[in-house]
Amino acid sequence: MKKIFIATLIILNLFGLSFKVFAKGSVDKDLSGEYFSIAEAYTELKKYDKAIDFYKKAQKSKAYKKASHYNMAQVYALQKNWKQCIKYLEPLHNEAPDNIKITGAYAYALASSGKSKKALELYKAIYDKNTDTPEYFFNYVRLLIITKEYKTAKELLEAEREKFTESEDAKTIEELQTKVNKKLNPKKEK
Asked: How far apart are the C-alpha atoms of 116 and 120, rounded to whole Å?
């Protein structure tokens, strides 16, 4: 008798679920988390158009909207579609200008799209708040070089040489310094 009761409950639950599916066309469940996971998988597989489709589905949920926008920006960056990348990063940056990860990504997208001066301003702000972080220092110097601020880059490299003494950091400083010196002292053609 107990088995018949349990089987009846299972059948009723299945009937109720199938009724919802046929009545509404879908189950009353937010699938945004699943869409987000699928989008991430497509990104790893480098199927960027499919990833964007699923991020767009996931963004409909408030819980996944910002993460979907950030990840769509990353996908557009991987495609070198800087206009779309900036479209998603700019509002995130405006909402959270102190978020280093978002600001750094936004600055990178701006620099890649040719808006180097604005990118430089953003990265300078990141560096000024984190002067002991080699990654931010080197990225700031690279942007100085891109924007042809060679003297400032040279002065900064010389001033900070003693701060970043790890072998990899010293190597990067040397490479950047060589690049700056070549720009400041170009070889003259004979």
From this structure: 6
